[in-house]
Design goal:
alpha/beta; 15-stranded parallel β-sheet
Length: 456
């Protein structure tokens, strides 16, 4: 057909006087057809691309709609944030204002305290009172005594801290999160100075034995109990040197805690309880220098707080008790069980505190003989209700009892004992502002011919 058309076209052109070469036209037609085919293919490709574009355009439109929704939501959240920010800013302003007021109140309180301190009278120790321990003591305008003394500042400095728990594991590193279990494991840590006991009950023979805690801080966190019931002997924690213990509840068996101290060694005991010792004193301290604050003893077989001479080193005891308490002391077969007692020429200062219900003199201090006297200074102490009932020792039913002792009683209080004061064997008792239920009546006090009780 194509050849036929070329022949006709050649004939026509020939009739018009043209010379046509059939081959050239045929090649030209081929070229044109090829170009048409390429254009068709390009058009098809454009159509495909257009379809893809429309699909992408549709996707972009959808994404744009989602973005607009998110933008709208974000705009709402931004509005909420701005509102909350404004609220918080207002709260900060209120808190800042309150903080400013609190700071001002603190300054006013500090100023009042400073002024009050100026009105407080510094206590002047009696010239005859002998002791290695003489903290600064003040008397308030309303008659109370206090010591300018922070016992917590005397924790032993430096070293490592180890935590124990009744349910710990000695393979643990000894942190609060991974505590050890026994005192032995804590003591085995090089340079361990402070042992924190986490809440719970620690039993003798299991968690500890008669460990020497010298050079250590032993501090309870929460309700911490040490139970000595696992021993039938005198086993208990003890110290042979300077130590600090805090917030421990220590009970029986024979005694609760023991210390043997040299001339320059100190024991600090803060917020501890000692009770239910079965055959001895609750707390036995020989020699050294002891500070006890906010401590209590109760339900003991013999004495509560007991201080004796360190015979081996020839060191008499010196002690300070601040706001301590003792009650239900002693057994019915012993006529002299005391709440607190210094011996052997030692000295003691008691500031505040309450001592009651002892089977003997509640406060009972004794020296060795008329040449070696003990020294007892009592400021604002309340002693009452001796339970001694043995008719052979009537003078032991006394709130304050002294033998071979120089005793000072300032603004102390006594009631419900047979005697407020008993002074025997070359004792001298000086009182100021005593408040008793039998203030120096005929049977209020008891002395022998070698002793005196003098109101100053």
């Amino acid at each position: 057909m194509k050849k036929f058309m070329v022949t006709i076209l050649a004939a026509i052109l020939g009739s018009l006087g043209y010379i046509v070469v059939d081959q050239s036209i045929e090649e030209r037609m081929t070229v044109l057809e090829k170009q048409v085919q390429e254009l068709q293919e390009q058009n098809s490709s454009i159509m495909d691309n257009n379809t893809k574009y429309q699909e992408k355009h549709s996707q972009v439109s959808e994404q744009h709609s989602v973005f607009e929704e998110k933008f709208s939501l974000s705009d709402e959240q931004h509005s909420v944030f701005e509102e909350k920010h404004a609220e918080i800013a207002t709260e900060i302003e209120v808190i800042s204002s309150q903080l400013s007021k609190v700071e001002q109140e603190i300054q006013e309180i500090n100023s009042i305290n400073e002024q009050a301190k100026k009105r407080h009278t510094k206590y002047i120790y009696p010239a005859e009172f002998t002791s290695r321990l003489k903290p600064n003591i003040y008397k308030t305008s309303y008659g109370e005594y206090y010591a300018d003394f922070d016992i917590t500042k005397h924790r032993i400095k430096g070293g490592k801290e180890i935590y124990l728990s009744p349910n710990g594991n000695d393979k643990n590193p000894g942190t609060r999160e991974e505590p050890k279990r026994t005192f032995k494991a804590a003591f085995a840590v090089t340079d361990c100075t402070t042992i924190y006991l986490l809440e719970g009950t620690y039993n003798y023979g299991d968690h500890y034995v008669a460990n020497d805690v010298s050079g250590k801080n032993i501090i309870g966190i929460g309700n911490v109990k040490l139970n000595n019931a696992g021993t039938n002997s005198s086993g208990c924690l003890r110290t042979s040197g300077t130590a600090y213990i805090e917030n421990l509840d220590i009970s029986g068996h024979n005694r609760c805690f023991a210390a043997t101290l040299g001339l320059s060694e100190y024991l600090y005991i803060y917020k501890c309880s000692f009770h239910d010792s079965k055959n001895n004193n609750a707390l036995s301290i020989t020699g050294g220098n002891s500070y006890l604050e906010d401590c209590e003893v109760y339900n003991t077989y013999l004495d509560g707080f007991n201080y004796h001479k360190n015979i081996e080193e020839n060191v008499v005891p010196c002690a300070v008790e601040i706001n301590c308490r003792a009650y239900n002391i002693g057994n019915s077969t012993n006529h002299s069980c005391n709440a607190s007692t210094i011996h052997d020429g030692g000295s003691i200062i008691r500031i505040g505190g309450e001592y009651e219900s002892c089977h003997g003199g509640n406060i009972a201090d004794t020296g060795t003989n008329d040449r070696v006297r003990s020294y007892s200074l009592n400021l604002g102490v309340y002693s009452h209700g001796s339970t001694q009932s043995n008719p052979e020792y009537p003078e032991y039913n006394s709130s304050f009892w002294a033998r071979y002792t120089k005793m000072w009683l300032y603004e102390c209080k006594s009631d419900s004992s047979s005697y407020d004061i008993t002074a025997l064997s070359y004792s001298s008792v000086y009182t100021t502002g005593m408040n008793t239920d039998k203030l120096f009546s005929e049977k209020a006090n008891h002395t022998d011919h070698t002793s005196t009780i003098t109101e100053k």
